[in-house]
């Protein structure tokens, strides 16, 4: 791995104070792209107060960028304008499908290796793993137009968010107990936890 920096959260609202403490004000005045595609795949939209305003209060100029219908040229231009990309939660398979169809899948990895910071929440964190197949216990894979579970491979372990979520924890913990990654480690995250990845190392905050 290169100089990549990732912040992989279970749930943005509960984990934001830790994201803020890690980023501090070192990127104040730069642009941040919010990718709400996964949420749209489940029929909801990230609300302003919990997803956009916190980043604005940190000093970011926030850009909204849905991947659906975007061309690789459009994605490339947008990614080159930002210092941080935040990928929201929602349907993991729908998100990964549109990452590929738009060209985001390859382009974002290049930008991360160049120093752009990647922040994921829930589905946005799961797609950073080598293989998202285990998410079919939690998400509807029919939302994707093709079957290809290869994730962004930004980390070498699996991530299961929402281990302590009031509504999802029972199913998530059952999925965690049944996880078989053929040697791949799986990290279960409570909603207030964030994985901070720096180059080849990581810590759970």
UniProtKB/TrEMBL annotation:
Protein name (database record): Peptidase S51
GO molecular function ontology, one term from the record: serine-type peptidase activity
One Pfam family linked to the record: Peptidase_S51
Gene3D superfamilies named among the record's database cross-references: 3.40.50.880
Species of provenance: Phyllobacterium brassicacearum
Keywords: Hydrolase, Protease, Serine protease
Family: Belongs to the peptidase S51 family.
Hydrolase keyword on record: yes
